[in-house]
Write the structure tokens for this entry.
Amino acid sequence: MATLTASVYTSHVPAIGAALDLGKTTEPYWQPLFAGYQPSKAWMAANTPDVIFLVYNDHATAFSLDLVPTFAIGTGAQFAVADEGWGPRPVPKVMGHPELASHIAQSVIQQDFDLTVVNQMPVDHGLTVPLSLMCGQPAAWPCPVIPFAVNVVQYPIPSGMRCFRLGQAIRRAIESFDAPLKVQIWGTGGMSHQLQGPRAGLINKDFDNAFLDQLIAAPEELAKKPHIDYVRDAGSEGIELVMWLIARGAMADCADVPGPQPVVRRRFYHVPASNTAVGHLILEQPALA
Ligand code: DHB
Ligand code: FE
């Protein structure tokens, strides 16, 4: 059976992708940020999974306001890198895993989460920047990726608890796939930021660090946090953080029969990076007995 080996959490600031693509990673502004991801890249190289289930949000790139799926699973064999206005990022195309993705769609929909099945979509910075941060600039991404897009752009968006419960359902789906695949689940976006209006530029370090603490130690309690708290305390785009609860809900200690707590392999927090506080965690699953 497939196993869930780790969850990874990271911001997806598009300027980070531009800094990498334009060779600016050693500039004083960017150097501390990329230095902070060095140990994570080493961990990733040593712990490359067979598949990454990558929870992210589309920024009106694949889905405009014409069509807003709440939860969309990418079941295609490959996904093109989106042109977000400056041409596609010079990164590898994303290879999917249609067999596992179709199984997860089947299992999760049977568990009463109504996913939108997407065979073709371009993927934007929400997906490619986390891959770049964790994998660097390879000629091909190290493994297939199942894109899982969550609507956090156009209200009504899913609650933290809905996301947490969905993570639990995704765990059941992965663990019932009949092949010995090692799967990581990533939760991306956040942390505090607001890109528009009078509060543009808002950063809240206290909120972000309390969120990281609680995500590690008390995720189900954190899942009760209402949208208004994110928007008030972490800015209008800080709501992207609800996606982290999907990845956290998939860990063994959140399962029907709770397993061991995850081990914190990496925790990093950095300001500034464009308009967003960058947060990052790696939670590894101890091998189940
Ligand atoms: C920024 C952050 C985001 O999450 C995003 O989607 C776009 C821009 C920023 O900080 O610039
Ligand atoms: Fe974003």
Remarks:
- The chain has one domain: 3-284.
- DSSP finds nine helices and ten strands in the chain.
- The chain has a mean pLDDT of 97.
